[in-house]
Structure formats: C-alpha cells, structure tokens
Amino acid sequence: MSYMRGDLLAKTRKLVKGFAKAEPVWLKAMEKAPPATFPRAENKLRPISLPEDTYVNKFFQKHPDSKFEDAIRITGFDPPAARVFSWRVLELKEQGVSEEEAMAVADMEYRAERKAKKKAYARLKQIARLQGKRPPPNPYPSAIKEIQAEERKFVRDRFYNPQTLHIVDKLREDRAQEMIDRRR
Q1: Using alpha carbons only, what angle is made at residue 66 by residues 64 and 67, rounded to the nearest 5 degrees?
Q2: Where are the alpha helices (DSSP H) in 33-161?
Q3: What residues have CB less than 8 Å from 37, skipping those under 6 apart?
Q4: Which one-letter DSSP state was computed for residue 133?
Q5: Three-state secondary structure readout of 140-151
Q6: What percent of the chain has pLDDT over 90?
Q7: Mean pLDDT taken over the chain
Q8: pTM of the predicted protein model
Q9: What is the pLDDT of residues 161-180, one digit of tens each?
Q10: Contact 85, 110 (CB under 8 A)
C-alpha cells in the first residue's frame, strides 16, 4: 500500500473498490468519523538561522582548532566558545562599535580567557607537585584528549585480555600454516 497516495482511509477505499481487499469492519465507522488531517509543508523546510551564525562561522575560520578543543558539551550548561564570541560581537555592535573592532575585542577576550585557563591549570599542577600529590585532571581538556582517554583502556585491554590473546594466537597459527602450505 505504500505506492498509493493518501491516508489509510483513502488507500483502504481504493483497495476495497478495486476488489483487492475485503471490506474491513472498521471502514464504515471510520468513514462516518474520519481521523483529523494535518496540513503538510508545501515547500522544503528552511534551515534555522540565528543572528550570530555569521560570527560563529567567522570564529571557526579564525580558530579552526577550537572545533576540537572547545567541543560542544551536550550535557553541559556552558555555551560553546564560538557562541560566546558571537554574542559578544553582537553586544558590542549594539553599543555602536564597528564590526571589525567588535570582532577584534571579542577575539582578544577569547584569547585572554584561554590563556587564563591554561595558566590556572598550570598553577594547580604546580601546587599539587609541591604538596606531593598527583596533579588533578585538566578541567579544560580538549575533546581529542578526552576521546583518547576513553579509548586508552580499550587499547591497553587488547594486550592483556585472554580472549584477544587467544584470537591473536589463532591468527599466528593460521599464518604459520599458510606459510608452510606455500613452501610445499
């Protein structure tokens, strides 16, 4: 029935009318009280664009590495750095500053914030070393390093997992057997 146009009621009517299907019990009741029909969108849906989107794109052109370092945290409440940058540019433009100057100021603030975060973490590590403790985990890690940290246990696991070692031994035996067969 997927090749026919219309809703369930129209499709069933066509099938019954063409003697392709016996009339179902519910057809008369459904004809008396048909289901609600919702209007369809005539054109393609337009993409949602926000006023700051142009500045977000300019930010990523200027700082392409920030896509990986300042990744969007779905579970976090802090907006991504690109959004904060663009909001700051829009705020400065509302105050009457030109676009170039607003972008320069927002860029300077972004760089200063990143530098302050790195400096704060370096100080935390220094304090931990002085106290003889392990340094704390980086509160501002890059997304790549977070992914690598998650994968590290699986990478190490392949060297010590008995099932993995059994598979590797089997592969070695198969390879050795192939080499013996080739020599014959």
Answers
A1: 80
A2: 53-62, 66-69, 81-94, 99-131, 143-160
A3: 7
A4: -
A5: CCCHHHHHHHHH
A6: 41
A7: 86
A8: 0.54
A9: 888 889 989 999 999 999 99
A10: yes
Which residue, among 141, 174, 159, has the nearest Cα to 73 in the 3D structure? Answer: 141
Residue with tokens 């099938």: 15
Burial class for 82, CB neighbours closer than 10 Å (0-12, 13-18, 19+)? buried
CA dist 72 and 70 (Å) reads: 7
**Long-range contact pairs involving 36-41 (C-beta distance under 8 Å, separation at least 24):** 37/7
pLDDT at 154 over 80: yes
The string of pLDDT tens digits covering residues 94-128 is: 999 999 999 999 999 999 998 998 899 999 999 99
Name the one residue in this structure whose structure tokens are 């105050």.
95
- 3 φ/ψ angles, rounded to the nearest 5 degrees: -80, -15
Q: Under a CB-based contact definition with an 8 Å cutoff, are residues 59 and 66 in contact?
A: yes
* 118's tokens: 């790195």
Q: DSSP assignment, residue 73?
A: -
12-61 pLDDT, tens digit per residue, is 988 999 888 899 999 999 889 888 877 777 777 788 899 999 999 999 99
